Amino acid sequence: IIETGESQVADARSPGRFAGTEPEPRAGIRSGHMPGARNVPFSALAEDGELLTKDRLRKVIEDAGIDLSKPVVTSCGSGVTAAAITLALETLGHTDNRLYDGSWTEWGGLGDTPVVTGKD
What we know:
The chain is an alpha/beta fold. It has 4 helices and 6 strands. The relative contact order is 0.25.
């Protein structure tokens, strides 16, 4: 994913965890995100317990830097809240997406995977 650039990574974690300014809740997990990942916090996809309208979903996702004409891999801390991005993408008719089940717990827990910090 990272080396080929074929897919975009949409990370559902909070902005602080994504940027590496807030600690990870699991011991031994590095702070930050995958190179090139874009932050799409799952909390930004719903309001009052309901998924946003299609127009608002599209704006949130595109404002995060996700190109809806390209494949997307969704990620989060442990593979759970990434499903909110997957649901949003599917709602918008974007079916070329996959959920990275290992998510940040796997990636950030490995010592040989690249990690970056900051908003981008």
